[in-house]
Amino acid sequence: MTRAELAVVGAGAAGLYVALCAAAQGAQVALISATSLAQTASYWAQGGLAAALSEEDSARRHQDDTERAGRGLVRASAAAVLCEEAPERVRDLERLGVHFDRDSGGRLSLGLEGGHSLRRVVHSGGSATGRRVVRQLSALAAQEPLIEVLEHARADSLLLLDGRCVGVGCDDGRVVRARAVAVCAGGAAALWARTTNPPGSLGSGMLLAHRAGAQLADLEFLQFHPTAVIGVPGREGFLVTEAIRGEGATLLDAHGERFVDELAPRDEVSRAINELLERTGERSVSLDMRAVDPAMFPNVVGALAEAGLDVTRELIPVAPAAHYMMGGITTDLHARSTLPGLYAVGESACTGLHGANRLASNSLSECFVFGCRAALAALGEPGVAAEAQTTAVTFAGEVAQPTRSALWEYAGLVRTRAGLEALLDDPYPLAGLIAACALAREESRGAHLRGDFPRTDTALDGMHTIIEPAGEVRFERWL
C-alpha cells in the first residue's frame, strides 16, 4: 500500500506534468507508468505545442481556428481556456528546462500546420518535440523526492469509497490510496488495425473510469492522420508530421498532380485521400518533401532512411491511419470527471476542446494547460482516513486482432448503420461503446463520416454524445 495525495495513471506528457505541478505545491504524488519512463506514446509525438506567441497572433485568433476545425462542436469555454493559457504553459516548460527551437535572432521558431491561420506551433528539435519534452519531464519526475514512480505497473482497478474515487490498484498487486486519481493513460487509436499509435493505446483508462461510474463522451470522433507511411517494411503506420506540409511538402496522386489543399484541417485531407484511393484502387498517395530542408526534421528523415527511403530524392507513400480520439472521459474545465475524486487529462479526457476534429498541435498544449488545472483542483479534494474500507472496480481486457480489423472496417473513415451494429457485441467493450456513439449520431461531421447520413445536421451543432455508466446514450449541449 502506497499513500499519496494524488495518484497519476500514465506517464506521458499529461501525467508527468500533472505530477510535477502537484509536487510543486508540496504534494506527495504516486506516478504509475505501464512502461519505463520516457517510453510512452507522447515520446513519439512529432507535432509541437500550439500557442499564440507572436505579436500578430492572439488567443482569440487561436480559438477561432480551433472552433473552425472542430466543425461546430468545440466547447467554446474549453477552447478559451486552452488558447489563453497555452503561452504561459510554454514559458513554464522552458523554465523546467525544455529547449524550444529558435531562429538566428533568438526568437521562438513558429511552425505552420493544417487549420492554423498563421504560424503558432513551437517545436523542440523539429519533429522530435515529444521525445525531448517527455525526456526532460521524466528526468525531473525521477529526481523529485515528492514523486514516487511506479514503473511497469498497469492500473487495472479504481478504489471507491462512498461514491468517490480514492485510489488505484495495479496488476502487479501494488495499491495507491490518495485523495484523488488523475487518469492520463492516453487514447484508443491502437484499437484500429491501421494506426500511428503504439500497441498500448487501447482506451483502458476510459473503460476503467466508465466501469467505476464516470461518463464518457464523443467516442465516435476518432481522427485519422492523413500522412501515415504505408508499404515501407519496418515503418508501417509511421506518422509523417503535418509540420512538413507546413514547410512546403505536397501530396500527389498517381499522375504526380496535387489534389488537395495540404494545410486544410485533417478531416478534409484524410477524406480527400480516402476518396481518391477508393476511386482509383491505389493503396497510397505520395508525399513529396524533396524541396523541404531535411535538417528540419531529422527523426523523420532518419527513420525513413533506415527503411531504405531517401526523402530528398524519393516520394513517400502515405495513407490515412487512426491517430487521435477526440472523445474520452467527460470532464469540466478543471479536468474533473463526473465521478468525484477522478480526474482525466490529455487524450483520455473529453473537455469538448477538439469538437469533431482536433486542430493540429492542440493536443500537447491541452496536456499542459489542463494538466496544471487538474493538479491544483485535485489537491483540494478531501483526505481519506487510512482505515477506510474501499471497493475496487476492476477492468483488464485483452484486444484480439478481429476487434482491430472490425473497427477499421466498420468504424473507419466511412461508417454505416449495418457495420456499426455489427460492432455492438464486440468482445472488447470499448468497441461497442464507440459503435453506440456513432450509431446515435446520424450525420456526418468532422472525423465522423456516415455513408448513410452524408450531410451535417445543424440541429446537432454543439451537441455532445454522452454515454452514462449504465450504457444510456444521449446528446447534451456543453457551454
What does this structure look like?
- By secondary structure, this protein is α/β, with parallel strands linked by helices.
- It folds into 3 domains: 2-220 and 326-394, FAD/NAD(P)-binding domain, CATH 3.50.50.60; 224-321, Alpha-Beta Complex (Flavocytochrome C3, Chain A, domain 1), CATH 3.90.700; 401-477, Fumarate reductase/succinate dehydrogenase flavoprotein-like, C-terminal domain (Methane Monooxygenase Hydroxylase, Chain G, domain 1, Up-down Bundle).
- Helices cover 30% and strands 19% of the residues.
- The protein has helices at residues 13-24, 59-69, 76-95, 129-143, 204-212, 242-246, 266-280, 298-306, 362-378, 401-410, 417-423, 429-440; strands spanning 2-3, 6-9, 29-33, 49-50, 110-111, 121-122, 147-151, 155-161, 164-170, 175-177, 180-183, 216-217, 222-229, 250-252, 285-288, 316-325, 328-330, 342-344, 349-350, 391-394, 463-467, 473-477.
- The strands form 5 sheets. A 5-stranded mixed beta sheet has the order 1-10-9-8-20, with helices on one face. A 5-stranded parallel beta sheet has the order 7-3-2-11-18, sandwiched between helices.
- Strand 2, helix 1 (13-24) and strand 3 form a beta-alpha-beta unit.
- Helix 2 packs across helix 3 and helix 3 (76-95) packs across helix 9 (362-378).
- The mean pLDDT is 95.
